[in-house]
Design brief:
Bound molecules: 2-acetamido-2-deoxy-beta-D-glucopyranose
Structural class: alpha/beta
Largest sheet: 12 strands, mixed
CATH superfamily of one domain: Ribonuclease Inhibitor
Subcellular location: Membrane
Oligomer: single chain
Number of strands: 14
Main location: membrane
InterPro entries: Leu-rich_rpt, LRR_dom_sf, LRR_N_plant-typ, RLP23-like
Pfam family, one: LRRNT_2
Membrane topology: Single-pass type I membrane protein
Order of helices and strands: HHEEEEHEEEEHEEEEEHE
CATH class of one domain: Alpha Beta
Number of helices: 5
Radius of gyration: 27 Å
């Protein structure tokens, strides 16, 4: 009898424990976690060292809800920090460089998105590089745009297997004649979107990327580099190659690139006549940008057989003569019942046809 009472007491006691736990968890659900709040304050101190004034809303105190702080986003169920948007966070009055220090971020176990865009990071603290972020199993978005990272950043990112989006635009990546293959970007098999825009890469992509690993890649931005050669990457849907050094041979080397839906070749070195047959094989192409090249004519437009899906064609800032252009348009219209938009903005037609000017 007494053991039954004890059992009941015990189970009541357990019920209490469970209720208290539920309440505490519920309360945490409204605020942020203690250790993450402390980590945020450490991060702020590091960002402001030695005398900056960024992040004024991140202040110490009992019961402050750090999930409400600027540039912080939490999961409303778990209270964990899931997003840190530290774009241009360094106070420009601080002339000292800010170096990346991975330890400052490892407390945020559920971090999904980290943006360090626009901080002119020249590199990282010794043994505190980006490779240590591989402990953050949920990290999907890493934005490192507008920093000063050099080629050695590539191999530090190789273990971040949860990444879906990586932006290395506007950094100091350079093409090297003898690229060391162990310094390539590799392993990121979940990566869907990758950008290297505005760097000084001038070699083929295989020299800085281990292409076979990037099985999920859908979008690649290499615009505004100095690249001259490129070959199709099957699976890729969006390819931005504007502002590079491609000449007319790029079309032939991309022949058979059947998965690409959007291709931007604007602002390259395409000149003279384009043989339209070279666009054959882009079976899924929906948008093509050839603006701002020195194209003068399109030869044999009847040759296009497979651009049924082309919806948008950009031909702005191009030199072309009316005959071949109207042939091209006629054939495109005939071929492609889906073509909805043709941009001729800035186009310059041959003399006597000023009514065509846009
Ligand atoms: C918040 O966390 C819960 C539980 O882990 C998860 O199911 C949910 O997807 C998360 N929400 C967001 C926006 O991350
Ligand atoms: C990196 O961050 C950790 C954690 O805040 C800190 O203990 C360490 O001193 C930092 N390293 C440097 C060189 O700033
Ligand atoms: C590249 O950056 C790393 C990390 O900051 C630095 O140690 C290295 O000296 C840099 N390399 C060059 C060639 O500038
Ligand atoms: C790439 O640029 C480097 C300078 O950064 C130069 O030495 C090299 O010759 C260039 N390579 C090609 C293929 O243009
Ligand atoms: C390639 O780079 C790695 C890491 O920087 C270095 O250890 C290795 O010696 C380099 N190999 C060659 C052939 O230069
Ligand atoms: C076009 O570019 C390719 C690749 O760089 C080069 O081999 C070829 O000589 C160039 N053609 C012309 C006409 O410049
Ligand atoms: C344009 O086509 C017409 C008719 O086919 C031809 O007479 C004319 O010479 C062509 N003009 C140019 C610049 O090729």
């Amino acid at each position: 009898m007494s053991s039954l009472v004890t059992n009941m007491r015990n189970s009541l006691w357990w019920l209490w424990v469970v209720m208290v736990l539920v309440l505490v968890k519920g309360w945490y659900g409204l605020g942020c976690l203690e250790q993450e709040r402390i980590a945020l304050l450490q991060l702020k101190a590091n960002i402001n060292y030695p005398n900056g004034n960024s992040l004024p809303s991140w202040v110490e105190g009992e019961n402050v809800n750090c999930c409400k702080w600027e540039r912080v986003e939490c999961n409303s169920t778990t209270g964990h920090v899931i997003q840190l948007s530290l774009d241009s966070i360094r106070d420009y009055h601080i002339l000292r460089d800010w170096y990346f220090n991975a330890s400052l971020f490892l407390q945020f176990k559920e971090l999904k998105t980290l943006s360090l865009n626009g901080n002119y990071l020249p590199g990282w603290v010794e043994n505190e590089g980006f490779e240590r972020l591989s402990a953050l199993r949920n990290l999907e978005v890493l934005d490192l745009t507008r920093n000063r990272l050099n080629n050695s950043v590539l191999s530090t990112l190789n273990g971040l297997s949860s990444l879906k989006f990586l932006d290395l635009g506007e950094n100091d990546l350079k093409g090297l004649d003898h690229f060391n293959s162990s310094e390539r970007l590799s392993g990121l098999s979940n990566l869907e979107i990758l950008s290297f825009r505005y760097n000084q890469l001038n070699t083929s992509i295989q020299s800085f990327l281990k292409l076979d690993d990037f099985v999920s890649l859908k979008e690649l931005d290499l615009s505004h580099n100095e690249i001259k050669v490129f070959e199709p990457i099957q699976g890729l849907e969006i390819l931005r190659l504007s502002g590079n050094s491609f000449n007319n041979s790029i079309l032939a080397s991309l022949r058979g690139f059947s998965t690409v839906k959007s291709l931007d070749l604007s602002g390259n070195l395409l000149t003279g006549s384009i043989h339209v047959q070279e666009l054959d094989g882009f079976r899924n192409l929906e948008e093509l940008d050839l603006s701002d090249n020195e194209i003068e004519s399109f030869v044999n437009p009847e040759g296009v057989k497979s651009l049924e899906k082309l919806k948008v064609l950009h031909l702005g800032y191009i030199k072309y003569d009316l005959n071949s252009t109207s042939n091209l348009m006629k054939s495109l219209m005939a071929l492609s019942s889906s073509l909805k938009t043709l941009y001729f903005f800035g186009g310059e037609l041959s003399k006597g046809n000023s009514e065509w000017k846009d």
